[in-house]
Inverse folding.
């Protein structure tokens, strides 16, 4: 009896330990998923380019109090990339140059050793055999040239006509789909939500200085107009444009900083799916794609 009670207590304690381990693992996974969804990813980038100054572009991405960090640096000397975990370097590029040179020299030696003169002779013999075997007969070439050209063009015309009918049917279906009022409501809702998502994803800090000039003054004016139309309304006081219509020049300095939340993407999907017209439009699109694939 005493040994039986001891075994039951041992099994009960072992079961409790296993349950605690499983619960701890599930808790860690849930916390990790919550961190991915709610903890923002911070990004920061700065760079400059000019003929007199040294060009450099830096990109820094960090997450969870910089416990996970990625750094990219582009300079005239080369490109550098590094990954940090718990502020310790895990991976960096380029690797040690001495090791790369040693590996390259070893591979070159192996290649040189493999390419012996006997092997070259064998390769030449094989090439000559294949060339002799693949020479077509003159009679076969004449038979292919004597094919009736009228039949070829007739087949091409029939294939083009069938394709054109398919294109006309596809255009009609697209017009009917777009002109539907419920689908138009879904498209308007999608446009509003995408604009909301872009506003949420805009960087908190942004500054750009751009001094540019092309050979054609009209092209310089067009590029300046594009910046003023698309970027200046979003960042009115953060952009400095200096167009030069007399010289060919390109100089810039920029700084950008912001954060991205995965939760906002989930929120966007939820807001889209809450609209009934959007749900029906997606379902109809999905059914048409399935029918087209089956056909």
């Amino acid at each position: 009896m005493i040994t039986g009670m001891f075994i039951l207590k041992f099994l009960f304690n072992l079961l409790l330990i296993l349950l605690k381990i499983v619960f701890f693992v599930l808790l860690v996974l849930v916390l990790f998923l919550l961190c991915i969804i709610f903890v923002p990813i911070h990004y920061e980038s700065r760079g400059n380019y000019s003929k007199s100054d040294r060009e450099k572009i830096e990109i820094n991405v960090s997450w969870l109090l910089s416990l996970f960090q990625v750094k990219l640096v582009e300079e005239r000397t080369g490109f550098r990339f590094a990954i940090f975990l718990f502020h310790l370097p895990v991976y960096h590029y380029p690797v040690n140059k001495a090791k790369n040179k040693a590996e390259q020299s070893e591979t070159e030696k192996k290649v040189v050793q493999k390419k012996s003169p006997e092997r070259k002779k064998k390769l030449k013999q094989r090439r000559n055999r294949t060339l002799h075997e693949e020479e077509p007969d003159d009679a076969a070439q004449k038979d292919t040239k004597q094919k009736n050209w009228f039949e070829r063009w007739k087949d091409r015309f029939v294939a083009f006509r069938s394709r054109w009918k398919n294109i006309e049917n596809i255009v009609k279906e697209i017009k009917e789909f777009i002109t539907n009022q419920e689908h138009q409501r879904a498209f308007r809702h999608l446009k509003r939500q995408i604009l909301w998502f872009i506003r949420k994803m805009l960087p908190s800090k942004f500054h750009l200085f751009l001094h540019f000039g092309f050979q054609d003054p009209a092209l310089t004016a067009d590029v300046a107009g594009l910046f003023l139309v698309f970027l200046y309304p979003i960042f009115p006081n953060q952009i400095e444009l200096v167009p030069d219509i007399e010289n060919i020049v390109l100089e810039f300095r920029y700084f950008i900083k912001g954060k991205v939340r995965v939760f906002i993407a989930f929120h966007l999907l939820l807001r889209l799916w809450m609209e009934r017209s959007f749900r029906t439009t997606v379902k109809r699109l999905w059914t048409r794609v399935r029918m087209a694939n089956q056909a």
